[in-house]
Structures are given as C-alpha cells and as structure tokens.
Amino acid sequence: MFKRLVVVVMVLLLTVSLSYGSESEAILKLLLKKGVITQKEYEELVIELKTVGTPEEAKDKAGAEPEAASHQDKHMLHEKDGIPNFFKGLSVAGNVVTVGQTTSGNKKNNPPGGDVTNANLRAQFEVGRPLGENGQVFFKTEAGVGKGLVQDGRLDTFLGVNETAANKYDSYLWVREAWYEHKLLEGKLTFTFGKLDFANYFDTNAVANNENNQFLSSGFVNSKAIELPSFTGGVRMTISPVELIYVSLGWQRGDSQWENIFNKPFLIAEVGVKPKIGELQGNYRINAWTNRTDHIEIKDPTNKTAKGWGTGLSADQQVTDSLTLFGRLGYQDGKVYKYDVAWSAGLALSGKLWGRNDDVLGLAYGMAILSKDYRDYMSASKKSHGDENRAELYYSILLKKYLVISPDVQYISNALGDRGFHNVWVFGLRTKIFF
Q1: Are 165 and 146 in contact (CB under 8 A)?
Q2: Fewer CB in a 10 Å sphere around the end CB: N or C, the chain?
Q3: Alpha-carbon span 23 to 17, nearest angstrom
C-alpha cells in the first residue's frame, strides 16, 4: 500500500515536472534503481510521459490561448518573406538640392517690385524593387522648404525661374510617386499605375528635363504648353513593337484631385522614334492631349466649362559625342490659355572637350507667345503686351563623387506678357548632394 502511495505521489510530481523535459525520465530511473517501482511500471510511466508531451505541445494540440487567438498580427516585419528577403533586391537613391537666386533690374517693376535674394532646399528619397520577373514597385518621397523668387509675387512669370522651389508652400512633405509597373510580351508592353509623375513618360528630353541637374527654368524642364496634372493617381501604357518606335497612352485626374477620379480626366498620347546614326542617339516625340477639367474662356468669362487641349513636339539629337541639341514646340487652345504657343531650343555641351568629363554646359532660349484672345483682353484693359522671352545658361561642375554645383544665369523680358515689365537678370547657384 505504501509503495502504491509513493508511486502515485511520484506520478503527481512527474506531472508537475513535465515542463523540465528529460528530468522527468531521470527521476523514474532513480525510482527504478531504488526499487520503488518495477521495470514494468517504469516502462508504462515512460510511455505515458511521451504521450502527454510538454505543455507547449499540449497547447498546440488543444489550440492557442484565447489571447493569441484574438490577436491578428498586422506588422509587415512579421510577414512570410519579411524585410531581410525584401532587401535582397532593393535599390535606394536620394538627393538634396539647394538653390539660391537673386534678381537684378527688378526694382522698376511695380507692384510689388524690388530686387530680392531667396533660397530653397529640396530633398528626394526613392526606393525601387523588382517583383517577380516582370514587375517593379517604386516609391518616392519629397520634402522641401522655401518658395524661391515667386515668394510675395516678386517675380512671377509664365516660364518660371526655379522648378525645384515649392512656390505655394513655405515647407512641405509628400509622397511624390508610388506605383507598380508590369511588363508583358517580352518587355514590348509596359503598364504603370499608381501615383505618377507624367513628366517622366511624356514630353521627355535627354538634356532638358531634370531641374536637379539641367535647366532650372520650368519652361526648359517641360513644355509650358501642356497642362500636366501634378503627381496624382493615373495609368500609363507604352507599347514598343520594335526598339525604334514606341506609343504611350496616359490617363490622370485633370485637376490632380483624388475624389471622383474618373471625372474630368487628363488624357495624353505620344508617339516617339529613337533613331541612331552610328553612336549618335536621337529622340523625336509628338504628343496630343486634353484636360477635361472646367476652364474659363478668355473672351467669354461666363463660359466656365470650356476644356483644354493641345499638341506638342520634343526632340534631342546628339551631333557629336560631346554636343547634344534640343528643341520643343507646343500649342494649346488660345481660347482658354493666355499663351497658345511655347517653344524652346538649346544645347548641352560635355566638359570632356576641356578635360572635365563630368561637367556640362547648358544654354537655352524660349518664348511664351500670347494668344490672340489674351492680346485683345490686354488691349481692352489698356495694357501693353508682348511675348515673354527667356534665356538660361548653366554650368554643372562635379566637385566630389557625390557633390555637384551649378552656377546659373537667366534673362527675362515681358514677364506674364507685359511689355511694361522691365528686363530682369536672375543669378543663381545650385548645389546637389546625391547618394
């Protein structure tokens, strides 16, 4: 009887000690050695131990605890692939651009007139990663401070003086782009959808398309005769049956809003050819677009539902391995836009000619030509009118591996189509740190 009581007590102790794994079996061996239990009892208890298992195993068999069952883990770090695997194909890049500009000759322009010196800073950070064999995801964020020279209306123009400046905001932080891209038909067909910057796909140019490295004036970054929406949801499709030719189509909400996204769209189509003569690359593009948001007619302000439309050309051609020429020509409906024609032309010259392979000299000239309806409006308002003219010269100097500085000079006449506007010089310095 006493022996059986001891066995019962020991079994209870074994049950309590299950969490200690192999220690339970060691106790049984000790009891067997001391003669407290028989060999048969030892073997039966060992089998029972292996059947019961550990508390953790028992939990798995019985189901999770109530607290665990009610919790849904939404942390991306805990998903199947996790961040470590995602990093394997990740590409990261960024830059910080600062621009300082000062005017000369603006004192006589009134109101408000006065020469002014302003600066701004913009930082961009982008991440991209392939998804599968044919997909890619991309994210770009942007932050900045400073409105540039347009602050307080000191120097307002059709063609703009600084595309890196926020213009409307003293400071900002936003998602500039976030999209997914997929290629089909062995790369001949590409779809991109999400928050898009259409200037990356339409009216592009090899030497006049990037305010971080090339011209600062907005009129030389893109055609000012295209009413492009500003970084909003959209879809782009490009088909390139052969390397020489491509056709691109794009859709976005025309006023850059996210409500009722299918109403009043901006639509654009572009055809491009990319001939190559020897090692000299050329790119020629023609586009047509319409912005279906409501516009006010210049001649009839009671008509507030007019639609905008236009067409344009953009071309760049290498002439030598050091010299590339470019040109743009755009037309937009003169009934709703103050200028109906905008054109620009210029060149980019590599510094390899004087032993500075990574330096670039850029020169451009352009005009915004007033529409007939806007000329009539200004005449009726007893204002003298004239086409806005713009010239720009920059020199980009690579100082260090990650540092570029660019002195920049612009000359402006007839800003906003006002012949009474006194000619102004704008002197600037841009610095760019990139990684």
Answers
A1: yes
A2: N
A3: 8
Phi-psi category of 382—alpha, beta or left, where left has phi over 0 and alpha has psi -120 to 50?
left
DSSP run (H or E) holding 28: helix 22-33
pLDDT for position 7: 53
Residue range 183-207: mean pLDDT, rounded: 95
- In whole angstroms, what is the distance from residue 34 CA to residue 420 CA? 115
* Cβ atoms 121, 145 nearer than 8 A: yes
**Rounded to whole angstroms, how far apart are CA atoms 30 and 269?**
87
* 13-27, 60-74, 385-399 — most confident range: 385-399
> 383 Cβ partners below 8 Å, 6+ apart?
418, 420
Give burial (CB, 10 Å; 0-12/13-18/19+) of 70.
exposed
Name, in order, each residue with C-beta under 8 angstroms of 422's C-beta and a sequence gap of 6 or more.
105, 106, 108, 109
Q: What is the pTM of this model?
A: 0.79
Q: For position 112, what pLDDT does the model report?
A: 65
DSSP bridge partners of 291:
266, 308
- Indicate the class that CATH gives domain 96-434: mainly beta
Look at 367 and 113; give whichever has higher pLDDT: 367
Task: Report DSSP state, residue 371.
Answer: P
Specify whether the CB–CB gap between 336 and 296 falls below 8 A.
yes
The conformation of residue 80, written as its DSSP 8-state character, comes to S
- The sign one gets for the Cα dihedral 219, 225, 226, 229 is positive
Q: At 146, which amino acid appears?
A: G
Residue 308's contacts (CB-CB under 8 Å, 6 or more residues apart) are 227, 290, 291, 293, 295, 332, 333, 336, 337
User: Which residues are within 8 A (CB) of 374 and not within 5 positions of it... i.e. 6 or more apart?
Assistant: 298, 334, 337, 338, 339, 385, 417
CB-CB contact of 275 with 282 (8 Å): yes
Confidence of residue 80 (pLDDT cuts 50, 70, 90): low
Domains of the chain: which residue ranges?
2-69, 96-434
Least Cα distance to 265 among 303, 235, 223, 297 occurs for: 235
Cβ neighbours around 102 below 10 Å, total: 16
- The span from the CA of 205 to the CA of 346, in Å, is 12
Q: What is the pLDDT of residue 66?
A: 47
pLDDT over threshold 50, residue 17: no
The mean-pLDDT minimum among 26-35, 112-121, 169-178 falls in: 26-35
pLDDT of residue 1: 47
